[in-house]
Write a structure and sequence with these properties.
Layout: H1 6-10, H2 30-55, H3 61-68, H4 74-101, H5 105-123, H6 132-146, H7 150-159, H8 163-191, E1 199-201, E2 206-208, H9 213-231, H10 268-300, H11 304-332, H12 338-355, E3 366-367, H13 381-393, E4 403-404, H14 418-447, H15 453-481, H16 483-504, H17 511-514
Parallel strand pairs: 3-4
Antiparallel strand pairs: 1-2
């Protein structure tokens, strides 16, 4: 991941000089320059490990929960999965506020230590004699709480880069995050070779098996991350032109040619609007991820095993596509206004969901019999995970397939053709990552060179809230009203978001541009 910063590092450090800049303002020394980018690379790694911490156990939570506590049901599984985002939503503003007033090493190290401890707790949830499921809930919630450091990571990168470097650095950060989500399940699959029993270290009651090995690896990588932060990360702040800035609340170690952080009020309307835009972007992608499995099983009469395989391939392809888009955005932003890229991304997402709307005279196959616990995975996210794991462990040769008769809309809703689904997936896979990175980039520029920790915390919290509310919203609308209503509502939400974007378009400008310190 060290190469991810190379393009940004080759960009000119200083933008156009402000009208009142003094001749003594100089380019940073080579030593400080290298230290600044070493620190940024360490935070790329931190972002990668944070997303791995979420995805590395996501597919094994249900069987592990069943193994340690037979009283756990699908509803409780939903809470265990949601606890990560809940913890991150609470922690992000807290760690962000902390980073505004103290060296950013402190919240980073504390947050990673919390994640390490939580992973160790997850590995020992089998030990208590009772209430094991609650220990797992606490462990996953604390892992999410530790992942609240993404606000510190993004605020550091925003404060340690000039306007010209910002987009590239933010794209690299999002790339590392996306790679973490992609590779986490791959690591989990590798550890499946250990088996359910694995080995036990009796003196400390440690079981190393397919469920605990991933979190133990996460704990080890967390300790390594702490060491790197302690010995390599240094405090750096630069203004939008790239000149070294004096911190508001504590003195930086490296700054030799310091300038005061400029005054001026942050445009709060632009701040609120960007938070709303970011919430909708993550909300919509969470909808797509959640609806994919039940939609394909209902429309194409896929078995659970087929859905696991084919939907997994689709999501993996979207992950690879997202990485390519993140890299492409860095180049595109040099030629096109970043606001236009964000607006264009929203339009592409709208087109994707519009194409997905059902039409025509062909209808899906309907299940006419009562299937009890079989293919209705769209009630809760917990039940979706249960069905996915069941598909890997059961014989589905006699499994009924098609759209369940319990969903009345199956009788009158046209089928969504596979070509529609694949086209929509490609478009969403282009629009979502472009909107994601542009939201963060514009937000950081709107805030300017002042400490951004608290503001970045609120942005991360809005994203966590979207990941919690999105699956709940779409699962209920899809189950009771069907894909036509669900997708139409999504299209309506995107239209309203595009309208909001148009209303605040002129206000989404960099702090320094707004106050005339840098020419647009």
């Amino acid at each position: 991941m060290a190469s991810l910063g190379s393009e940004a590092e080759r960009e000119p450090l200083l933008g156009p000089s402000s009208p009142g800049s003094r001749e003594r303002d100089m380019v940073e020394t080579q030593e400080v320059y290298k230290s600044r980018w070493r620190s940024i690379r360490i935070l790329y790694l931190t972002m990668f490990l944070s997303s791995v911490g979420f995805s590395i156990v996501i597919m094994s939570i249900w069987p592990y929960l069943q193994k340690i506590d037979q009283t756990a049901d699908a509803s409780f599984l939903g809470w265990v999965i949601a606890s990560f985002s809940l913890g991150q939503m609470v922690a992000s503003p807290l760690f962000g506020l902390w980073s505004n007033y103290r060296p950013r090493k402190e919240p980073l190290i504390v947050s990673i230590f919390i994640s390490v401890a939580a992973n160790c707790l997850y590995a020992y949830v089998h030990v208590p004699a009772a209430h094991n499921k609650y220990y797992m809930l606490i462990a996953r919630g604390l892992v999410g709480f530790g992942a609240g450091n993404v606000a510190v990571v993004r605020s550091y990168i925003a404060g340690a880069t000039s306007l010209q470097e910002r987009t590239s650095a933010m794209a690299n950060t999002s790339t590392c995050q996306a790679l973490g989500f992609i590779l986490g399940p791959v690591f989990q699959t590798c550890f499946a070779l250990i088996g359910e029993n694995g080995v036990t270290w009796n003196p400390i009651k440690l079981q190393i098996n397919m469920y605990t090995a991933p979190v133990l690896l996460g704990a080890f990588l967390g300790i390594l991350n702490i060491i790197l932060i302690l010995f390599i990360l240094r405090e750096h702040r630069v203004d939008d032109s790239g000149r070294q800035c004096k911190s508001v609340n504590f003195r930086e170690e490296e700054n030799t040619d310091e300038v005061q952080i400029p005054g001026g009020c942050i445009d709060q309307v632009a701040v609120v609007a960007t938070n709303i835009l970011f919430f909708v972007v993550l909300f919509i992608f969470a909808l797509f991820e959640t609806i994919l499995t039940p939609l394909t099983m209902d429309m194409y009469a896929w078995t659970q095993e087929q859905a696991v395989l084919y939907d997994g391939i689709i999501l993996a392809a979207l992950g690879v596509e997202a990485v390519a888009v993140f890299m492409g955005v860095k180049l595109l932003s040099k030629k096109i206004d970043e606001r236009a890229i964000l607006l264009g991304g929203l339009v592409v997402v709208w087109v994707g969901f519009f194409i997905l709307l059902p039409w025509g005279n062909q209808f899906p196959k309907v299940q006419w019999e009562d299937l009890h616990n079989s293919s209705i995975p769209n009630t809760t996210f917990g039940e979706i995970i249960i069905d996915l794991w069941s598909s890997l462990r059961e014989d589905h040769s006699q499994q009924p397939t098609g759209c369940p008769i319990e969903q009345a809309w199956c009788l009158y809703t046209p089928v969504i053709h596979l070509a529609q689904l694949l086209t929509a997936a490609v478009l969403v896979g282009v629009g979502y990552p472009a909107c994601n990175v542009m939201s963060y980039t514009l937000y950081s520029k709107i805030l300017g060179p002042k400490p951004q920790g608290m503001y970045m915390g609120w942005l991360s919290a809005s994203g966590s809230a979207a990941r919690i509310l999105g699956p709940v919203f779409i699962s209920h609308v899809y189950t009771y009203l069907g894909p036509r209503w669900a997708l139409s509502l999504v299209c309506g939400i995107v239209v309203l978001t595009i309208s909001l974007m148009g209303a605040v378009y002129r206000r989404l400008v960099a702090f320094s541009v707004r106050y005339g310190q840098i020419q647009e």
